[in-house]
Amino acid sequence: MAPIETGRKRRKYKRFSPSRDFFVYVKSGRKFILGRLVDLGLGGLSLECLSDCGEQEISALADTPCDLGIFLSSRQFFLSDIRASLIYSREQDSNRHSFLGSRFKRCGFSFEDLDQKQEQALREFMTLNELSCVE
Questions:
Q1: Model pTM greater than 0.70?
Q2: CA 50/CA 35 separation, integer angstroms
Q3: Residue 68 CA to its chain's centroid (Å)
Q4: Which of the following CATH numbers is that of domain 4-133: 3.30.70.330, 2.40.10.220, 2.60.40.420, 2.30.110.10?
Q5: How far, in Å, CA of 60 to CA of 115, rounded?
Q6: Residue 94 above 50 pLDDT?
Q7: CA dist., res. 124 & res. 129, Å (int)
Q8: Spatial contact of 71 and 77, defined as CB atoms under 8 Å apart
Q9: From the centroid of its chain, how far is CA 13?
Q10: CA distances (Å), 74 to each of 21, 77, 89, 112, in order?
């Protein structure tokens, strides 16, 4: 499958990288993917997931608004039900493989119309978890 590129936007907000592993779920209808948070800003986030474990799910998200959430492996949700759209999906470095032999895919999502409460929650999340600036 060719990489999904729905248009490059110039970033309006700085992006931050977590110092520990957070996970992101993305769902739209019956489609669901799970990945590791790579970076996050007030405008969106990127995640990394196994490319074999959701190829059809990722493709299906290209034209559909979705909801996402960020959590720790302890199942404690920090943020949930954030409306987003897929901006890109592409294979990662071909030399990097998981222990399963699968390659990784990186996906970027843009947040849609965050309300004041969601924006405040994102700011608190970035502050409390000491995310480091990547831009």
A1: yes
A2: 8
A3: 8
A4: 2.40.10.220
A5: 26
A6: yes
A7: 8
A8: yes
A9: 15
A10: 11, 9, 27, 27
| CA 122/CA 78 separation, integer angstroms | 9
9 token code pair? 């936007």
Q: Which of 90, 98, 95 is nearest to 47 (CA)?
A: 90
Chain centroid offset of residue 134 CA: 15
Q: What is the DSSP string of 38-62?
A: EEEETTEEEEEEESSSSHHHHHHHT
Q: How far apart are CA 59 and CA 37, in angstroms?
A: 19
Confirm if 114 and 42 have CB atoms less than 8 A apart: yes
The pLDDT value recorded for residue 9 is 55
Taking a C-beta distance cutoff of 8 angstroms, is the pair 15, 122 a contact?
no
Taking residues 35-51, report their average pLDDT: 90
